[in-house]
Structure formats: C-alpha cells, structure tokens
Amino acid sequence: MFNTIIEMLSYPFMVRAFIVGILVSLCSALLGVSLVLKRYSMIGDGLSHVGFGALAAAAALNAAPLTVAIPVVILAAVLLLRVSGNSKIKGDAAIALISTSALAIGIMVISMTTGMNTDVYNYMFGSILAMSSQDVEMSVLLSLVVLVLYVFFYNKIFAITFDETFALATGVRANLYNTLIAVLTAVTIVLGMRMMGTLLISSLIIFPALTSMRVCRTFCSVTINSAVISVVCFCLGIVVSYFFATPAGASVVVVNLLMLGVYTAAGEIRNRTFSRHE
User: Fold this and answer.
1) Does pTM surpass 0.85?
2) How far is 198 from 175, CA to CA, in rounded Å?
C-alpha cells in the first residue's frame, strides 16, 4: 500500500494534480459555505458552463485556456449578479439563462472548429493529465490570491452571508463583497475545471459545506471543517482513482458523497443523544 502511494507520487502529473487539487479544494470549500448559506450554491454549476464555452473558444483560437476562460467567467459572474439583482430575472433563473447560453455557444464553436476531440472531453469530465506545467503555475498563484483575499475579508464575507440587510445598515458595502465572492468563485471554478470537469466542479463547492453543516453549528467551525473535508476527500478521491483506474473527478465526488453520509449519520446520532438528555 505504502509502496504504491510512493509509486503514484513518482509521476509528475500526479504531483501536479495533488498540488492544484488541494489548493482548489480549499478555495472551493471556503467560498462554498457562503454560497450555500446564501442559497446561491448553483452559481458554481452555472459558471462552469460559461467556462466550458470559454475553453471551447480558446481551443478554437489555439489560445491558452486559462488566459481566455478566467476573464470571461469573471465577467459572467459579475453579469450574473447584475441580472439577478437589478431585474425581474432572479437567482436560479439568471443562472440558467447565462449558463445554458454559454454552453450552447461553446458547443456551436466546437462543432464548427475542432469537433468533439480529447481536449473537449477533458473539459467536460476532467482529467489530471490535462494540466500542463504552465497551468499548474498559474493555478497555484491564483489559488493563493483567492485564499489571501478570503482570509483578509473574512469578517465582511461573514457579515453579508448571515444578514446582508444588517450589514448594509452598519456601513458594509454588500454589493462590493458580493461581487468579490462571485469573482473569487469564478476564478476557483476555472482552475478546477481542468481536473474535475464542467459537469462535476460545482460538487467541490456544495458537498463540503453541506457535509459540515450536518454536525457543526457556527460559521467558523463549518468553514474550517469544510476546508478539512474538502482536502481529505480530494486526496482520497485521487488515490481511489489511481488504484481503480476510475475518472479522477467522479472519484472525488463519490468520496464526498460517502463523507456526507457519514456526517449525516453522526449528526443524527448526536441529535438523538441530546434529545434523550433533555
């Protein structure tokens, strides 16, 4: 077992996968707590579809995927907030409108240029082999930027997550920090898409937060526990993927699903224990 893990880490692409995956998992878990509590968790799914359209355009233009996708998805995140907040199109409807439009454009671009090749398949379902050294360097840099900004503005993010109206009354610029969350989420989504795929990347945002909420009760404890769960599940998922030759993204999601089941059972046991003592 130990020798097999050492063998696994002897491959450069596996090392790259662990480095980027752990950082992206941390970013996703931290942002996911606020998105789930604000009932905006599906923004990850919507932005991943936009990312697919941007990556398809990059492939057609023979451009660097991340260089094209990141600004496009950030623009979509900001537009999503504007459409959702300033018109009759709200929440999930705005996400569906933007995401399906971007996905349709991406599919049309692909059909008229490269066709359904291996790169497109990797964008949709993810592949740890899809990451180049340049992708890793940019992913590490941007992930660290996301983590630093989240920690620096933690108190403001906490305020607008729990009571945006009260935060506005106390002088917090809620629109600015909502935009910050959306931008950080957009960057995280694009970074994770190469490994997890368009169809699965939103799971990194949703699962850890929901799992932690089965047991934890405070924002800080949920946030810390989500980060730990996300990293552990990612690492276990990659190991499972290597041992059983299963897709990396799907393996990570299945491990997250199992962890959700464990935490749900633990939460139920704890609640019943407390009920008996009352």
Assistant:
1) yes
2) 27
**∠ at Cα 219 (214, 225), nearest 5°?**
55
Looking up tokens 């041992």 gives: 243
pLDDT tens-digit profile of 171-203?
888 888 888 998 999 999 888 887 787 778 888
Helix (H, G, I), strand (E, B) or coil at 9: coil
The count of other CB atoms within 10 Å of the CB of residue 68 is 19
Whole-number Cα distances in Å, 135 to 14, 70, 131, 194, 249: 14, 12, 6, 9, 17
Q: What is the pLDDT of residues 27-60, one digit of tens each?
A: 999 999 988 888 777 777 788 888 888 877 777 7
Cα–chain-centroid distance for residue 140? Answer: 15
Q: Residue type at 104?
A: A
Length of the chain: 278
Residue 11, CB-side half-sphere exposure with 13 Å CA sphere: 11
Buried b (16+ CB within 10 A) or exposed e, 215-231: bbeebeebbbbbbebbb
User: Quick one: tokens of 76?
Assistant: 């979509």
22/32 Cα distance (integer angstroms): 15
